[in-house]
Amino acid sequence: MSEKHLLNARRLLCHFPVIRTQEAVKKLSTGDILEIVGTDAGILQDIPAWCRINGHRIIDTFTNEYDYHIVLQIGE
Predict the structure, then answer these.
(1) pTM over 0.90
(2) Catalytic, out of 14, 41, 58, 59
(3) pLDDT class of 61 with cuts at 50, 70, 90
């Protein structure tokens, strides 16, 4: 059964959110869900590009008043 995890990437600037995402994904299992929350709008382009290269699937992206959220599913 897949698990949901949260990665706090607030106040990290390019390329640190991607690096932290990569480190977090290494510890997760195929099918797990990872939600990345950041304050740098660049994650809306950087994380999906990284996912395409590495075989992970973007489930959702959204913003609220202060943060940018990306929800992805870990691929094989």
Answers:
(1) yes
(2) 14
(3) very high
